[in-house]
UniProtKB/TrEMBL annotation:
Protein name as catalogued: Response regulator receiver protein
Annotated source species: Thauera terpenica 58Eu
Domain of life: Bacteria
Residue ranges of domain EAL in the record: 24-277
Length: 286
């Protein structure tokens, strides 16, 4: 039998088509609806200075408030969005929501130095720069409040084009972080060639600190190199105090993780910002 799969296209299903593929198709057409009906929401996770625990930024993390399945994490739908070509629309929506949130916090007088937004490699088209500029202008938000997080795979994709695009973002004042640093195909040439502002050390190098001597050596080397070429450093996935302390001693500047705060919705994040002042944070990370 045939089933509508969005637009006026029809997709023929074989009896043998497996359940997973069916689910995927259903989810894809539901994602189209989700984009129109504002079912996507952003959660925010604070990034803190590792020695003083002052707020240095927030990472925006998308969730899908699915009418049938509840709140879905990106692992359930980002790859699907990439495969189906919906990622650009999704990414634009995310950017729009994040910048609107920055404007809302600014209007409330809440100080969030910057918000980091994850950007898929497939969003790195020439239009992206204008799209971001327009969203920032619409909400009267300075570009310096925005950071774009890209994985290493995004940066190796298409050398010259990506380089120009990132340079345009930097010229505008947007900062650029390499996400999950160390697990992709990182080439040191990339770091020299591209206008990067920060490295986010992947959680896998953090999780076994401080017991794993090898990981200590790797993290130390990453930090030394990053600081020598003027990059900010952020450690991901800090869950334990010992990890925080070790990273602090090694000189990592910032970190995020469940130890400090889990990602929370906008409302709870605003409440957290309202009740959590920097001095309070310095005494006791929440
Ligand atoms: P990421 O950018 O590396 O984000 C960090 C992930 O680690 C988030 O998972 C976060 O909730 C989780 N995390 C934070 N602290 C801890 C911790 O202490 N321990 C552990 N175990 N995990 C921690 P989440 O929100 O499920 O996002 C997963 C990935 O999905 C992100 O990894 C990012 O690559 C992607 N993603 C999220 N939002 C977006 C988006 O708006 N657009 C795109 N293209 N990708 C996104
Ligand atoms: Mg990220
Ligand atoms: Mg990451
Ligand atoms: Mg990660």
């Amino acid at each position: 039998h045939a089933k509508e799969s969005g637009g006026n296209q029809y997709q023929v299903f074989s009896e043998h088509m497996n359940v997973r593929a069916m689910e995927r198709m259903t989810l894809e057409s539901e994602l189209r609806v989700a984009l129109e009906e504002d079912q996507l929401v952003l959660h925010y996770q604070p990034q803190l200075g590792l020695t003083d625990h002052t707020l240095s930024g927030m990472e925006a993390l998308v969730r899908w408030n699915h009418p049938r399945l509840g709140l879905l994490l990106p692992a359930r739908f980002i790859a699907l969005a990439e495969d189906s070509g919906l990622i650009c629309a999704l990414g634009l929506k995310v950017m729009e929501m994040a910048v609107a949130q920055i404007a809302a916090w600014r209007a409330l007088g809440l100080s969030v130095p910057r918000v980091a937004v994850n950007v898929s490699p497939m969003q790195l088209r020439s239009e992206l720069v204008d799209e971001i500029a327009q969203i920032l202008a619409q909400h009267d938000v300075p570009a310096a409040c925005l950071e774009v997080e890209l994985t290493e795979s995004a940066l190796t994709a298409d050398g010259p084009a990506v380089n120009g695009l990132l340079q345009a973002l930097r010229d505008m004042g947007v900062s650029i972080a390499i996400d999950d640093f160390g697990v992709g195909y990182s080439s040191l040439t990339l770091l020299r060639r591209l206008p990067i502002s920060a490295l986010k050390i992947d959680r896998s190098f953090v999780s076994e600190l401080p017991a794993n001597r090898q990981d200590i050596a790797i993290v130390e080397a990453i930090l030394n190199m990053a600081h020598c070429i003027g990059l900010r450093t952020v450690a991901e996935g800090i869950e334990h105090t010992e990890q925080n302390v070790t990273l602090g001693v090694l000189g990592c500047q910032e970190g995020q993780g469940y130890l400090f705060c889990k990602p929370r919705n906008a409302e709870d994040t605003t409440a957290w910002l309202t009740t959590t002042t920097a001095p309070k944070l310095a005494r006791a990370p929440v």
